[in-house]
Amino acid sequence: MKDYIEKRAEEVARYIVKSNATVRETAKRFGISKSTVHKDITERLIKINPPLAGEARKVLEINKSERHIRGGMATREKYLHRL
């Protein structure tokens, strides 16, 4: 694996753990796709830094479990602003 990919994977994971960021937020921040963020965390980082991969994975699992709530809140805000 290329060095810059390994560095990016670690940076992405540290950002997610530090800021509890979602995949979308992280992708936007680093200028990469959501798929790349996901692949960095779930596949690449496990080979590079397993403890960090575990921490980042926990944050992503929490975000995944809460996403339906965030979606509902966004819809609510949308309709409240229309009135």
Termini distance?
Answer: 53 Å
Task: Report the count of strand segments.
Answer: 0
pLDDT averaged residue by residue: 91
Helix content percent band: over 70%
- Strand-residue fraction? under 5%
Q: Over all CA atoms, what is the radius of gyration? A: 15 Å
| Main beta-sheet strand count, sense and barrel state | none
Descriptive notes:
By secondary structure, this protein is mostly helical. 88% of the residues lie in helices and 0% in strands. It has helices at 3-19, 23-30, 34-48, 50-82. Helix 3 (34-48) runs antiparallel to helix 4 (50-82). The longest helix has 33 residues, at 50-82. The mean pLDDT is 91.
List its traits.
single chain, 83 residues, mainly alpha, elongated
Gist of the model:
The protein has 83 residues and is mainly α.
Q: Topology, please?
A:
Elements: H1 3-19, H2 23-30, H3 34-48, H4 50-82
